[in-house]
DNA sequence: TCCCTAGCGAAACAAACTTGCATTTGGGAG
DNA sequence: CTCCCAAATGCAAGTTTGTTTCGCTAGGGA
């Protein structure tokens, strides 16, 4: 639960820039980089975590190293866009582990999915489960990633 | 530089499952969860970082909290697919901070981009810079995200 | 059988995080 | 203009966590 409109100053932004690159950086080093004491840095981080500016702290795993070398994009178009069916789709996609990311979009498609699988057989099985067994998917277009050129959740920061 | 073929056992996978959800979890707690001592956990984490299984440790920032509330997908189709021009495109996309993710794909498009911007004006300016000023973009299709249903870099783990 | 490597746990150690407290700073209200 | 309050800081403990050391225990070859 984000608390309130958090207003970030240049210290906060500088701290975020460091943390979204490497959140194991000691507060002491962050402090030196932004000209603040370690406790001050720590209090700001804590506040940003509580207000939801920092949504999480995670290790990034190389998919290929854990047997999921294939990344696939799917544009999904639904038959019906009734709110109830949209929500059902959101829930199903969210609950599927292979669906790494899911966005509800405007334009010629309704959803865009980023999927991680071990091989094309696994993808084929997944399409059956997600799209053919659903009675609400009109069509879907598949793009297989040949190169994950740039991957991350890094956000451009002002300043 | 990934060292060598790292073979992960069930301990490693259990540790990864925890870290990709919250990498601030103390090693002591991880140890309790997987039935290992804290030093053993720490050695395994270190090894996976050195071999590239763990690609990074990052804080996830809420884009809306830092003035980048709009997420946009772009399918980019190039005029020419000469290797040299592909590489040039990869470099330009990678070097653009607003391009959060960039994938080189098969199918009806050559690239898929995920872009983060403050408003549609910023997106319009970015399209000019990335697509119109480039002489190698045949066309591009834009999808604006209305809902970031599921966002992350979480990978499904075997076991 | 012997040795050798890899991995473990317990404990000692070092580093980082966290908290309490006094101080400073920047605004309003009187 | 002065006073007072709220917010944020730095410093210095105190606590937790991370890291290293060490001796031990398998598990494989030679």
From TrEMBL, chains A, B:
One of its GO terms (biological process) is response to amino acid. SMART domains: HTH_ASNC. Signal peptide: none annotated. Pfam families: AsnC_trans_reg, HTH_AsnC-type. One of its GO terms (cellular component) is cytosol. InterPro entries: AsnC-type_HTH_dom, Dimeric_a/b-barrel, Tscrpt_reg_AsnC-like, Tscrpt_reg_AsnC/Lrp_C, WH-like_DNA-bd_sf, WH_DNA-bd_sf. GO terms for molecular function: sequence-specific DNA binding. Residues 8-69 form the HTH asnC-type domain. It comes from the Bacteria. Keywords: DNA-binding, Transcription, Transcription regulation. This is AsnC family transcriptional regulator. It comes from Rhizobium loti.
